[in-house]
Amino acid sequence: MSAELTFLDTNVLVYVYDRDEPGKAGVAKRLLSESDPGELVLSTQVLSEFYVTVTRKLAHVLDGPSAAHAIDLLSLLNVVSVDAEVVKAAVQISEVSQISYWDGLIVAAAAAAGCGRVLSEDMNDGQVISGVRVENPFV
């Protein structure tokens, strides 16, 4: 039996670098260190959002080289490209599930990668959308 693929939303990865959220940072770091990297998935959307957030939106932002290094490390995981098919799926998911387009894009990318779950604090914990279960690792 193979392990379940897990999609990581941007917020989980940002907490690894957020010095103002030590509790959530600990959870995020533990999650990454205890997971098999081959079972973790993210998307080009997540990489982009991560970069903007850690360089502009945190109280203690990362400098450019540190953020670029983090992107290099995250790029070693399974990365789903956001293409036209994923965008079209996201539009449908957001309309049917009554979630934001951006959350729909996360779910669409997770579904495209064959993930059984997405870790996020932005959607409803336990909700199943397009066959993908949402889990909030911080509750």
Task: Describe the model.
- With 139 residues, the chain is α/β, with parallel strands linked by helices.
- The chain has one domain: 5'-nuclease (Rossmann fold).
- It is 52% helix and 14% strand.
- It contains six helices and six strands, in the order βααβααβααβββ.
- It has helices spanning 10-17, 22-34, 44-57, 64-74, 84-97, 101-112, and strands at residues 6-8, 40-43, 78-80, 117-119, 128-129, 132-135.
- The protein has a six-stranded mixed beta sheet.
- Strand 5 (128-129) and strand 6 form a beta hairpin.
- Helix 5 (84-97) crosses helix 6.
- The longest helix is centred in the middle third of the chain and has 14 residues, at 44-57.
- The chain is globular and about 40 Å long.
- 33% of the residues are buried.
- The mean pLDDT is 96.
So, CATH architecture? 3-Layer(aba) Sandwich
The overall pLDDT, averaged over residues, is 96
**Helix share, percent:** 40-55%
Main sheet overview: 6 strands, mixed
Quote the distance from N terminus to C terminus: 28 Å
- Beta-strand fraction estimate: 5-15%
Total count of strands: 6
Q: What Rg is obtained from the alpha carbons, in whole angstroms?
A: 14 Å
- CATH class division: Alpha Beta
How many helix segments? 6
Q: For the record, what is the CATH homologous superfamily label? A: 5'-nuclease
Strand order of the largest sheet: 3-2-1-4-6-5
Structural class: alpha/beta
CATH topology: Rossmann fold
What sort of overall outline do the alpha carbons produce when their principal axes are compared? globular
Q: H/E order of the elements?
A: EHHEHHEHHEEE
